[in-house]
Hints:
- The chain is an alpha+beta fold.
- Helix content is 38%, strand content 25%.
- Helix 5 packs across helix 9.
Amino acid sequence: MSNFDPKELRQVFSQFPTGVTVITTRTAEGEPIGVTASSFNTVSVSPALILWSIDKGAHSLEAFQNCEYFAVNILSDQQIPLSNRFAGRGQDKFSDVDYTNGLGDSPLLPEALTQLQCKNWNIYDGGDHLIMVGEVVDYKIADNARPLVFSQGSYAQASPHYDVLNTKQVDVLNQHDFLEDHILYLLRASYTQLSKVFYDRLNEAAGVSPELWRIYACLADGNPLDLDTLGQFVMQPKTALLDALKSIGAHVQCDTQTACLTAEGVQIAQKLLAIEKQYKKELADRVEGDSYNEMKNTLRTLYSREML
Length: 308
């Protein structure tokens, strides 16, 4: 058996994107239980079986081992706060959550992308986890929602790949100038093209991934920032965030739940910010006059929280 470094191995595993779920059930005493899990997967259509895994050290392990039913709440891309809530410990996770009860009174979370109500079918040993297999008894799918994705240690969104634009169907649409007049296509195509150039520069300059870049940018002033706020800015759950902070040698204060960069980290951050500043200048030079600032103001208006 190879002696892999656990942190590096988690990073390897994170290269495979997954959806994000909250698995719920009830304890024998009737207490609602819920945990965030990205280990969900399908097993069989006939019978309808799914699986997920739970850490043998989890507080909720006994409840899931002994429950008759559990529910898989597959989260939408608007439910990052809900994912973070159920990934944490030491709080009333169901406080202020307007859930309903499913089979076995398993909580069904509001506005989930999909809800699978499952009968506990079998449990298998899986190293430091138990593999929970459930038989799907009932399900519900939400309309007009997209899945929340977890990839490379950060939350992400699922969207059509840029290369689908090479299909014959899209070629037909191009003949009618549809894509060149479709705002979502233009935004997505611009982001895909421009971000690749920028992130390649960051990686060449300091071996920094997009996820680490966001951390450096948020902590560049050298002042501490609380972990919950930092997690929201960089779109990472706390466990992944702590691993990332450790990988760059940042200072994490457990008592105050804050993090800050070392003096060396601040220097790296300033170097990255200089690259970002130069790239912004290059983009601004590509458009005339005040168009660049007007474009940013327009995007801010489109992104206003009132429209989400």
